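New to this. Help decode the following:
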Amino acid sequence: MENVIQLEGLTKRYGQFTAVDHLNLSLKKGEIFGFLGPNGAGKSTTILMLLGLVEPTEGTAHVLGYNATREPLEVKRRVGYLPDNVGFYEEMTGLENLLFTAELNGLTRDEGERRAHHLLARVGLMEAQGKKAGTYSRGMRQRLGLADVLMKQPELIILDEPTLGIDPEGVRDFLALIQTLSKEEGITVLLSSHHLHQVQRICDRVGLFVRGRLIALGTVEELSRQLFPEEDALLEVEVQGAEEETLTGLSGVEGVTRVEREGDRLMIRCRQQSGEKILSYLLHGKVRHFQQKNLAWMKSTTAILRGCSKWKERKIGPFGSSSRRRWPTIS
């Protein structure tokens, strides 16, 4: 099995409305992938097709090597799913809810208790394990939900807007927990969200969805660089043995708007596409040694969110159509 998820031409129509439009996508083992887009973009519909809960109109969805439409039970045995609002038995304690899940998944009582206590500790709910789930806060319920989906030791977990209604500190803790679990246990994660800063914080790659279409794919920085080349960047360079004349000349490089120096460190404000020109200038200048330390894209969050809003209102034609703009896909 090469890819954990493999989607080919996946499409879902409801009458004349197309919720998901010919989606092609693959996810590799161990990565954290973000579905990013406004509400109504088709993210949740895609997830339901991955779980075999909704049948596609066209195309195929393979999850962990299984056809999600033809073999939904095999998919459900291996995939953990956490929706935006988790349902629990309110009169049962957090521990009792996990033990019930363990029983449903065929675990012995001893194994269920061992795993439940281990996961309650991992998600920070050991002290609350004896409290009824109905008394849990929104953040506590989501953490219990994460423990619940991990009871069956899934190879893939799918999170659909899991941080809605959680306070900022709770969001940070929850995202950090997901990232830690993915790295330590090798779990592949699919995170669906309309909050860029959350996706940006933990995801290895991002797919940008608008009106059922995947219009761009890559890291957040790649999307910013490809879709918004005119946005500013801040380039940090460490130089040694540079003559003052060479450093002064940096201000004349196309796209450079400001240069600040602190010892051997240069902070260069520039257009995103000017990075190579700046490094080329230093390479051919009288500089004994230089090293790029960092390249931070300015306004990338604002730019992508602004772009998302515009794309939501724009009619986007099929890829390859000469009458429409072709949006980049980054491998």
About this structure: The chain is about 35% helix and 30% strand. The longest helix spans residues 168-185. Residues 311-331 have pLDDT under 50 and may be disordered. The CA atoms of residues 196 and 302 lie 9 Å apart.
